[in-house]
Design brief:
- The chain is built from 15 helices and 17 strands.
- It has 5 domains: 48 residues; 105 residues, Beta-Lactamase; 103 residues, PAS domain (Beta-Lactamase, 2-Layer Sandwich), CATH 3.30.450; 70 residues; 184 residues, Histidine kinase-like ATPase, C-terminal domain (Heat Shock Protein 90, 2-Layer Sandwich), CATH 3.30.565.10.
- α9 runs antiparallel to α10, α10 packs parallel to α14 and α11 packs across α12.
- By secondary structure, the chain is of the alpha+beta class.
- The strands form 4 sheets. Strands 2-1-5-4-3 form a 5-stranded antiparallel β-sheet, sandwiched between helices.
Length: 553
């Protein structure tokens, strides 16, 4: 129909339709522009991610020709983009079989994650890499090539190899040592142990894995284990445990000394415990045998000493008027002195065997307690010229039997005084270190040789060769010790739960036991001033209390 034949209404309707089409076309054009802009932005973001990725990114053809790579790829293999034109991805593989395996697996699965290979850089350096890749397809689904990322794991592999070597060495050492090594979880169940621990308990590995400590300990030891583990868990600090009784599969009891340390996860949370268990069964049996011998000797000495002392008193009364003072001193006083010495040995031996049985402990404010004991020692050593200093915290306290603590401190002070020349110094140091309370007695005397240090806490050892010195008066220089004092303190340590240790340096001017000290600093030909003596040698005995809170706490 021609326009002139159309009615006005028809023309208006066609005009409206035309306007509607124009509006739709404009909207479509606008959407197309927005899509193109979105596509440009998407491509820009992709290119930014592609170029800025820290991993090496690549696109290659099926034949290995490089289509595109990012800067990280160039840095990884050491090539420029221009240099990549003449090579294929096959050229970077150390083993050609890996390339064939890569193609076979990715074409079967369509995707590969963490495919481990060795690649060769431009400078022929070989690196370990992980490849994560997918198929590169066109719109019709035709495979054009591969696209993916490459990550260098050479450092990680070297670290893992070093760790494996370290673990192998660590396990070899653990299997070769005679002491038992263990690791348990937070509940006390075995998770790892060495062969020595299996032999110690007489169980097989299969029997021991997962075994709880209550299955191979006495009830008393099980309680000690719980308390020790709980303390390590609360403090996060390792400790040593003494006197654990282990029950072997055959029913025998073994005695061990054990170290306990926390095992922590990556966040620092304690998830278990580890340590070394040393079998001291034979040592403990020898100690018991020695105790029986000493106890027997102490008992056997008591009666004849009493008889001889009684007879000596009768003889003194009978012959005192018939002898000159010199004869009297040379005979009866010398005999009486030696009898008193034997009596003192017998009394000290008796204390070793029965260390204050039945006495109760109490809370002791240490600084003031030490001051009182020190004052007694100063009175006994009033004939000596020594500077004795007490230093430390005044508010530290200890739950202990007072008589035992006084005996320990008094004995260490007497030892320090007898080993220090006149005009010398002695220090008493009281301090708290970590979870332990330390009481130290430090002298600057002649010191102890390295050979003698190994034996001195084993008992029955003379700390001085007293025949070299003229003074035998208690607290006099060179009066010497009889070893029983230290043996008695060691017995106290086992009974009351403290550790006695020694650090000593022999005087550099008299390095052997046969050397003589004049007993006074000003009389020493090697010392021009007191400081010369104070820096030449000395000993420090340390009493370490690990459980110094309330009794039973």
């Amino acid at each position: 129909m021609k326009d002139q034949n159309k009615t006005k209404k028809q023309l208006i309707s066609e005009l409206m339709e035309l306007r509607q089409r124009i509006t739709e076309l404009e909207a479509l054009e606008n959407e197309s522009s927005q899509a193109e802009e979105a596509l440009r932005q998407s491509e820009a973001r992709y290119r930014t991610l592609f170029e800025d990725s820290r991993d090496a990114v690549y696109i290659t053809t099926l034949g290995g020709k490089v289509i595109d790579v990012n800067k990280a790829f160039l840095d990884l293999l050491g090539y420029t983009k221009a240099e990549l034109v003449g090579i294929t991805s096959q050229d970077t593989y150390v083993n050609s079989y890996d390339r064939q395996r890569f193609q076979k697996e990715i074409e079967q699965k369509g995707f590969l994650r963490d495919f481990e290979v060795k690649l060769r850089k431009k400078d022929n350096t070989v690196i370990d890499c992980l490849i994560t890749s997918s198929l590169w397809l066109d719109n019709d689904g035709t495979i054009l090539g591969y696209q993916g990322i490459i990550r260098d794991i050479s450092e990680r592999n070297r670290a893992e190899e070093a760790l494996q070597e370290s673990e192998a060495k660590y396990r070899m050492i653990l299997q070769s040592i005679e002491d038992g090594y263990y690791e348990v979880d937070i509940a006390g169940n075995f998770t790892f142990f060495n062969d020595s621990l299996c032999r110690m308990l007489a169980y097989s590995r299969d029997e021991m894995i997962g075994m709880n400590d209550r299955q191979y300990t006495t009830q008393e030891t099980a309680n000690k284990v719980y308390e020790t583990f709980n303390n390590v868990y609360r403090t996060g600090k390792g400790t040593k445990a003494f006197g654990w009784d282990l029950i072997r599969k055959d029913g025998q009891i073994r005695y061990v000394e054990t170290s306990v340390s926390p095992v922590c996860d990556v966040s620092g949370k304690t998830i278990g415990f580890r340590g070394i268990a040393r079998d001291i069964t034979e040592h403990k049996r020898l100690e018991k045998t020695r105790e029986r011998i000493i106890n027997h000797l102490s008992h056997e000495l008591r009666t004849p000493l009493s008889v001889i002392q009684g007879k000596l008193r009768l003889l003194k009364g009978k012959f005192q008027k018939q002898m000159s003072p010199m004869e009297w001193e040379q005979s009866f006083e010398a005999m009486e002195k030696q009898l008193n010495r034997l009596s003192e040995i017998q009394q000290k031996t008796d204390k070793i065997m029965r260390p204050y049985q039945g006495l109760e402990g109490e809370r002791i404010l240490l600084f003031f307690f030490i001051e009182r004991v020190l004052e007694k020692a100063k009175q006994s050593a009033a004939h000596r010229e020594l500077h004795i200093q007490l230093q430390g915290e005044r508010d530290l306290s200890l739950f202990m039997v007072p008589e035992v603590l006084e005996d320990i401190l008094g004995g260490l002070l007497k030892n320090a005084i007898e080993n220090s020349p006149d005009e010398g110094s002695i220090r008493i140091i009281l301090e708290q270190k970590d979870e332990r309370l330390l009481l130290k007695v430090q002298d600057f005397g002649i010191g102890i040789t390295e050979e003698n240090q190994k034996q001195i806490l084993e008992g029955l050892f003379h700390t001085l060769d007293t025949e070299l010195y003229t003074s035998k008066k208690p607290y006099g220089f060179g009066a010497g010790g009889k070893g029983l004092d230290l043996l008695r303190m060691k017995a106290y340590g086992h009974h009351f739960g403290f550790v006695l240790s020694l650090e000593s340096q022999r005087c550099i001017y008299i390095p052997t036991d046969r050397g003589l000290c004049p007993g006074r600093i000003s009389a020493c030909p090697h010392c021009e001033r007191p400081e010369d003596c104070l820096s030449s040698g000395g000993s420090t005995f340390c009493v370490s209390f690990s459980d110094w809170g309330e009794k039973g706490g």
